[in-house]
Design goal:
The protein has 14 helices and 19 strands. By secondary structure, the chain is of the alpha+beta class. It folds into 3 domains: 86 residues, 2-Layer Sandwich (Uridine Diphospho-n-acetylenolpyruvylglucosamine Reductase, domain 2); 113 residues, Uridine Diphospho-n-acetylenolpyruvylglucosamine Reductase, domain 3; 222 residues, Vanillyl-alcohol Oxidase, Chain A, domain 3 (3-Layer(aba) Sandwich). 50% of the residues are buried. The structure holds flavin-adenine dinucleotide.
Length: 459
């Protein structure tokens, strides 16, 4: 087929650099308000799965390297590259639920806030990301550290099958039984995946009907005592309780706390099947010896996925400029957070924060199926610089890099979904166990020997 015929076959939009509308479309490829200065030659906004196939064939015939974008949430805009073709899947956001088999077939740009309420109508659920705006595509491909990790694990464990367009320009189905090495890579390679996924088939879980949340808000100065309590108490909680610790500025909704106060917020969310189970599960959290020092808190409040999305969305809101970086560590959370607390206290922006979680399955304790996603440590932190004024870009990015470099010696690697790929050329490699990284290279060489798909973005 000639280039002209391939272009004619596209139902979607093809915009070349220099065309009217290019810059507006390019900027919309990245959710972050901070837009990278990288410029693809061509952007194809696919209108159908067939369009993705045509676009890959067109890129092959014209020698353009391909990058793929679904929801645009990657913090460093990994899909935006200099030169080549960017295939934009944002118009492919459909979702079909088969309640009888507890499976769903979702297109790449379907978001957590689309899927969770649709599933809830059938009494079903999926481990979507913490913010409802996150597209399922890049999130599941990266592993997906979402809600209820203790029971559901990373999202990629609930992935049953993907439909892909390969570097050869073929449509292929991949699962544990068919093209299993490509499926293995789809479970975690994230922004280094070397095919375009047009559809994900997901295994679903029973909806926890009594999602219940408790929290304490402590002064940041209490971080050492708070985190050592968290570490002891975490071991007493059942897997259905998700625990998070945020170091940041007290939200303005907490009117009893002076504006601008730096705090540690500890939240326990129980994904329970009944209120009795929720209350029992949160027992160890409720008997907090430091409760008297809390500035605010919530006790056993009923919640829903929509309410959880709203709380997270207030912290990571759109139209801000942001940078993120991650660290897995074998150290206790308190070792990491007592270092990072000083940086949070001095952050140039009040919106910046550090999030810590205790990961779903510490390495070696629970056998996991074959997947590229690597859980590298027993604690995990993410730093976020979030600001608004373009004049403050440099100071905020420097703040984040300096803060994360202080805990880097305590770390064993990064998480590919949110790591700052531009901070160091080894970031992608250090987001995988060494043997996984080697296997990823081999599987890529098999499926994309000519390097049609862009490799991991690096500095
Ligand atoms: C506000 C916010 C909240 C977040 N919360 C979480 C969270 O709770 N847990 C978590 O684990 N992560 C979280 N993330 C990180 C998120 O998982 C990644 O940014 C992920 O890449 C988002 O998916 P996307 O489709 O929007 O990615 P995009 O930016 O569209 O794509 C990123 C890269 O993924 C690859 N890719 C995406 N789709 C395809 C496809 N269909 N085929 C082939 N390659 C593809 C491409 O290489 C692309 O460059 C969050 C990010 C943000 C901004």
């Amino acid at each position: 087929m000639s280039e002209r015929e391939l272009v004619r076959d596209l139902d979607g939009l093809l915009v070349r650099r220099g065309d009217a509308g290019y810059e507006d479309l390019r900027a919309r490829m990245v959710w972050n308000g901070l837009k990278p200065e990288r410029f693809p030659d061509v952007i194809v906004r696919a209108a159908s799965e067939q369009d993705v196939l045509s676009a890959v064939r067109l890129a092959r015939s014209t020698g353009l390297r391909i990058s793929v974008r679904a929801g645009g949430h990657n913090w460093v805009g990994a899909a935006l590259r200099d030169g080549g073709m960017l295939i934009d899947l944002s118009q492919l956001g459909g979702c079909t639920i088969d309640a009888a088999s507890a499976t769903a077939s979702v297109q790449p740009a379907s978001r957590g806030s689309d899927l969770a309420p649709a599933l809830a109508e059938h009494g079903l659920a999926f481990p979507v990301g913490h913010c409802g705006s996150v597209a399922l595509s890049g999130y599941i491909l990266s592993g997906g550290l979402g809600w209820n990790p203790g029971v559901w694990g990373p999202a990629c464990l609930s992935l049953l099958e993907v439909e892909t367009v390969t570097a050869k320009g073929e449509m292929l189905r991949c699962s544990e039984h068919e093209n299993s090495d490509l499926f293995w890579a789809a479970r975690g390679a994230g922004p280094g995946f070397f095919a375009a996924v047009t559809r994900f088939r997901l295994g679903l879980h029973r909806l926890p009907t009594a999602i219940t949340m408790s929290s304490y808000v402590f002064p940041l100065a209490d971080v050492a005592d708070v985190t050592s309590w968290v570490s002891e108490m975490a071991a007493l909680l059942p897997p259905l309780v998700e625990l998070s610790v945020v170091l940041g500025t007290a939200p303005p909704t907490l009117t009893t706390i002076a504006p601008g106060t730096k705090v540690v917020v500890v939240t326990a969310t129980a994904f329970a099947g009944s209120q009795d189970e929720a209350v029992r599960s949160l027992g160890a959290f409720q008997v907090c010896p430091l409760a008297g020092r809390a500035l605010a808190g919530v006790t056993e409040e009923r919640s829903t996925f929509d309410a959880l999305f709203e709380t997270s969305g207030a912290l990571w809101s759109q139209h801000h400029r942001s940078a993120a970086d991650t660290l897995w560590s074998m150290e206790d959370l308190s070792a990491l957070l007592s270092v990072l607390a000083d940086d949070v206290a001095q952050a140039p922006s009040d919106k910046s924060l550090v999030l810590a979680i205790i990961p779903p399955a510490p390495p070696g304790e629970v056998p996991l199926p074959e997947m590229a996603f690597s859980i590298l440590g027993r604690s995990y932190v993410v730093g976020y610089a979030i600001w608004q004024d373009p004049a403050d870009d440099e100071i905020n990015i420097r703040w984040l890099r300096e803060a994360m470099s202080k805990v880097e010696p305590l770390g064993v690697g990064h998480y590919i979904a949110e790591t700052d790929l531009l901070a160091a050329p080894t970031r992608a490699e250090r987001s995988f166990a060494p043997e996984t990284w080697e296997r990823l290279r081999e599987v890529r060489a098999r499926w994309d020997p000519e390097g049609v798909f862009q490799p991991f973005l690096h500095s």
